[in-house]
């Protein structure tokens, strides 16, 4: 069963093939953005459940549009609507949904919910973000980097800020795609050791530094994300802001990276907190391509899951 649960849990050749297919599908579109004929019907007759236990703009719309562009149909469900939120077990939910739909995408809190759903479902399950990882986002980010600058292998990616779920999937990708990764942020917000170990074990150079200016020296890509994630308690907001202020991505920081370095943010962004308007809207920013590429990357992920 081709579940897409995490980048470290997916074969590296399969990941590479997904990025290449996403790029091919994107560039095969006609001048009006319509998919090439071969790409319009792979999901014909397929029903995809999109389950959201947290808010979403990009994931919700890009999956829905992606399925429809490939000839399939979607059902968007909030956690509160399902019996899942009212005491039915995840295993039983997985068994029942598998009798109705061909593919399940879920955005949830605990990683254990995703894992249990995948264990008991007889259809593929895709991770649309958990508290710990966000693999679909990083597939879109890799596609975006390669479109602009060529192969990501051997490049230096710098993450400035909170070592969160998106950062974790970047570390998985460093190991699978062979790039180096530097984290800069306060020690209390370091990425989990398990993620760092995965990348290092596969030969990536992973560095942790408290000095953001030192971190970005030689960077090909600078990335940040919100300082307070959806699963974080809002009561941490003030403390987080104090801890992370020095790690804001601004023009001064970007000027210390390579001159052709790109800037990425998975969005939604908090302008003038983790990143300034000047960087968000500046010449090194590829955030809108990054958002669009969720669509193309996930279409390839869904085709891989369904073998179509
Ligand atoms: N980047 C991302 O996953 O955005 P949404 O929360 O809007 O889906
Ligand atoms: N780290 C953020 C990513 C949102 C797409 C969160 O989990 O809220």
Your description of this structure?
The protein is of the alpha/beta class and 308 residues long. Helices cover 42% and strands 14% of the residues. It has twelve helices and nine strands. α4 (111-120) links the parallel β3 and β4 (125-127). The longest helix is centred in the C-terminal third of the chain and has 20 residues, at 287-306. The chain is globular. The mean pLDDT is 96. The chain binds phosphoric acid mono(formamide)ester and norvaline (NVA). Phosphoric acid mono(formamide)ester is lined by residues 56-59, 129, 137, 266-268.
List the helices and strands and how they pair.
Blueprint (H helix, E strand, L loop, with lengths): L11 H16 L19 E6 L5 H12 L3 E6 L11 H11 L2 E5 L3 H10 L4 E3 L7 H15 L6 E5 L4 H13 L2 E5 L8 H9 L4 E4 L2 H5 L4 E4 L12 H8 L6 H5 L6 E4 L11 H4 L6 H20 L2
Parallel strand pairs: 1-2, 1-3, 3-4, 5-6, 5-8, 6-7, 8-9
Helix pairs in contact: 1-5, 1-12, 2-12, 3-4, 5-6, 5-12, 6-7
Q: Low-confidence spans: pLDDT under 50, at least 5 residues?
A: none
Percent helix: 40-55%
CA gyration radius, whole angstroms: 19 Å
Spatial ordering of strands, largest sheet: 7-6-5-8-9
Mean pLDDT: 96
Strand content: 5-15%
- Our measurement of the CA-to-CA distance between the termini, rounded to an integer number of angstroms, reads 13 Å
The overall strand count is 9
């Amino acid at each position: 069963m081709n579940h897409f649960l995490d980048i470290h849990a997916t074969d590296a050749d399969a990941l590479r093939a997904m990025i290449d297919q996403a790029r091919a599908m994107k560039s095969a579109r006609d001048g009006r953005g319509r998919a090439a004929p071969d790409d319009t019907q792979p999901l014909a007759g397929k029903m995809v459940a999109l389950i959201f236990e947290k808010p979403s703009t990009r994931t919700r719309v890009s999956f829905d549009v992606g399925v429809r562009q490939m000839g399939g149909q979607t059902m968007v469900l909030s956690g509160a609507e399902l019996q899942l939120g009212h005491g039915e077990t995840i295993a039983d939910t997985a068994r029942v949904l598998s009798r109705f739909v061909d593919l399940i995408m879920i955005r949830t809190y605990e990683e254990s919910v995703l894992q249990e759903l995948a264990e008991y479902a007889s259809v593929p399950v895709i991770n649309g973000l958990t508290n710990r990882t966000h693999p679909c986002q990083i597939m879109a980010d890799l596609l975006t980097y390669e479109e602009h600058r060529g192969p990501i292998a051997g490049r230096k990616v710098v993450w400035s800020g909170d070592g969160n779920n998106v950062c974790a999937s970047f570390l998985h990708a460093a190991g699978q795609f062979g790039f180096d990764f530097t984290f800069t942020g306060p020690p209390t917000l370091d990425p989990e050791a398990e993620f760092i170990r995965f990348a290092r074990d596969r030969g990536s150079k992973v560095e942790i530094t408290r000095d953001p200016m030192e971190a970005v020296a030689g960077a090909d890509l600078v990335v940040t994300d919100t300082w307070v994630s959806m699963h974080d308690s809002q009561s941490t907001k003030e403390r987080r802001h104090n801890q992370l202020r020095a790690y804001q991505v601004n023009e001064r920081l970007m000027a210390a990276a390579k001159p052709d370095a790109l800037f990425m943010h998975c969005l939604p962004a908090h302008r003038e907190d983790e990143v300034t308007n000047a960087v968000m809207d500046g010449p090194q920013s590829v955030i809108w391509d990054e958002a669009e590429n969720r669509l193309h990357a996930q279409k390839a992920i869904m085709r891989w899951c369904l073998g179509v």
